[in-house]
């Protein structure tokens, strides 16, 4: 309840002209906004009415000109695993990444069980063993993460909806209010015991994972689980409350590094107003409407190429390259590169201090991941 109230609080611009409406007759303003609301509701849900063409050209240049025009103030980013791959973070949950093939040693009844809440409660060991194996050597955000931060700093970011659980958005400087972590996060953990629910930090969880200890609550001895959404668990309530408040106000949707396969996340692309341009930065085109989606009224799929295309732009590249190209067109490229350099140096020096210069014999896996991330970044920023 309080969650829902908080989510709607910042939206003061919502047209609710209370002072004008006497009880007896309905104020015109209120009638108008009601009509506007109904019109947009119908056009959204029924796919009626042509959307207004906002971009002068369905290209990255067109998007950049739109942003620079000042008409675009509520950008929503939707991001997935693809924005973190250059940081050396494997796609944790998607089948087909080769990850599931490596799970045999855990004697799972079937591979997906490792992420199923029911199985986890009785057999938590495989999940934590896998978490250790896949634990990123460093939490170093990518060019793309910092591009999103720049959107925030320039007052253009409405919200970033992430499917990732790697916390890199937070490391890059996005805060609680900037972010909706649709599939949860490793950033915090909670005791699963219903009456306790004690919260634990990432550092606490990391220590347990690396000591090969099953994390148990120090208050009630219950099992402690990272706050990532397992199969069989609900998405965070914040996902739904924020979605309702954000998407009708979106004037540019930027979708990056996601194949838009997982619901309900994928359906968000259809929730922006019909006139809002949608930019996809990804290694392949995705999210185009299919027959089944149309039949189920899920509509709103992306349309880059048909003769009706009027607002969707596909930029086929890595997320880092796409963000750099867009930043370049916006005149932000140097600023972005400076930000990445500065932040990475900060993270490096922090890591050095934490290690205390003591043991230089890092696990080779950790080093490799870190170097891989560096190489990926510098390749793209130069
Ligand atoms: Zn507890």
TrEMBL record:
Q: What EC number(s) has UniProt assigned to this enzyme? A: 2.3.1.286
Q: What is this protein called?
A: NAD-dependent protein deacetylase
Manganese: is it a keyword of this entry?
Answer: no
Amino-acid positions noted as binding NAD(+) in the UniProt annotation, renumbered to this chain: 81-85, 91-93, 163-166, 258-259, 282-284, 319
Concerning CDD domains, the annotation shows: SIRT1 (cd01408)
Species annotation: Alosa alosa
> GO:BP terms for this protein?
regulation of developmental process; regulation of multicellular organismal process
What molecular function terms (GO) are annotated for this protein? histone deacetylase activity, NAD-dependent; NAD+ binding; zinc ion binding
Quote the biased-composition stretches of kind Basic and acidic residues, using this chain's numbering: 1-12
The active site consists of: 183 (proton acceptor)
User: Its family?
Assistant: Belongs to the sirtuin family. Class I subfamily.
**Residues that, per the record, bind Zn(2+):** 191, 196, 217, 220
Q: Name one Pfam family in it.
A: SIR2
Q: Where is the composition biased (Polar residues)?
A: 360-371
Cofactor(s), by name: Zn(2+)
Q: Give the start-end ranges of region Disordered.
A: 1-32, 350-382
Task of the protein? NAD-dependent protein deacetylase.
Q: Which residues form the signal peptide?
A: none
Where does the protein end up?
Answer: Nucleus
Any note on cofactor binding? Answer: Binds 1 zinc ion per subunit.
Regions of compositional bias (Acidic residues) in chain numbering = 20-32
User: What are the entry keywords?
Assistant: Metal-binding, NAD, Nucleus, Transferase, Zinc
This protein's GO CC annotations = nucleus
Residue intervals of the Deacetylase sirtuin-type domain: 53-333
Enumerate the InterPro entries for this protein: DHS-like_NAD/FAD-binding_dom, NAD-dep_sirtuin_deacylases, Sirtuin, Sirtuin_cat_small_dom_sf, Sirtuin_class_I, Ssirtuin_cat_dom
Which reactions is this enzyme annotated as catalysing? N(6)-tetradecanoyl-L-lysyl-[protein] + NAD(+) + H2O = 2''-O-tetradecanoyl-ADP-D-ribose + nicotinamide + L-lysyl-[protein]; N(6)-acetyl-L-lysyl-[protein] + NAD(+) + H2O = 2''-O-acetyl-ADP-D-ribose + nicotinamide + L-lysyl-[protein]; N(6)-hexadecanoyl-L-lysyl-[protein] + NAD(+) + H2O = 2''-O-hexadecanoyl-ADP-D-ribose + nicotinamide + L-lysyl-[protein]
């Amino acid at each position: 309840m309080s969650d829902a109230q908080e989510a709607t609080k910042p939206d003061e611009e919502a047209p609710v002209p209370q002072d004008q409406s006497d009880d007896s007759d309905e104020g015109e303003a209120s009638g108008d906004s009601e009509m506007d609301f109904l019109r947009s509701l119908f056009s959204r849900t029924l796919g009626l009415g042509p959307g207004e063409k906002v971009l002068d050209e369905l290209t990255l240049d067109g998007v950049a000109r739109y942003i620079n025009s000042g008409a675009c103030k509520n950008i929503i980013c939707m991001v997935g695993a693809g924005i973190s791959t250059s940081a050396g973070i494997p796609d944790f949950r998607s089948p087909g990444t080769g990850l599931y093939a490596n799970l045999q040693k855990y004697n799972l009844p079937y591979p997906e069980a490792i992420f199923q809440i029911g199985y986890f409660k009785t057999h938590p060991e495989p999940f934590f063993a896998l978490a250790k194996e896949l634990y990123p050597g460093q939490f170093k955000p990518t060019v793309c993460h910092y591009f999103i931060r720049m959107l925030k700093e320039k007052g253009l970011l409405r919200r970033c909806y992430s499917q990732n659980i790697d916390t890199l958005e937070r490391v890059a400087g996005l805060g609680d209010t900037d972010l909706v972590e649709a599939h949860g996060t490793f950033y915090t953990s909670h005791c699963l015991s219903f009456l306790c629910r004690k919260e634990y930090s990432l550092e606490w969880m990391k220590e347990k994972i690396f000591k090969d200890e099953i994390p148990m609550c120090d208050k009630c001895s219950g099992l402690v689980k990272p706050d990532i959404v397992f199969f069989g668990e609900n998405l965070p309530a914040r996902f739904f409350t924020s979605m309702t408040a954000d998407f009708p106000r979106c004037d540019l949707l930027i979708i990056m590094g996601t194949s838009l396969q997982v619901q309900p996340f994928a359906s968000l692309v259809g929730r922006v107003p019909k006139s809002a341009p949608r930019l996809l930065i990804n290694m392949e085109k995705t999210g185009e409407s299919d027959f089944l989606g149309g039949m189920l009224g899920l509509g709103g799929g992306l349309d880059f190429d048909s003769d009706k295309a009027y607002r969707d732009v596909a930029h086929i590249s890595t997320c880092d390259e796409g963000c750099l190209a867009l930043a370049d067109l916006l005149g932000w490229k140097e600023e972005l590169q400076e930000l990445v350099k500065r932040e990475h140096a900060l993270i490096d020096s922090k890591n050095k201090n934490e290690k205390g210069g003591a043991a230089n014999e890092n696990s080779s896996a950790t080093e490799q991941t870190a170097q891989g991330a560096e190489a990926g970044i510098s390749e793209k920023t130069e």
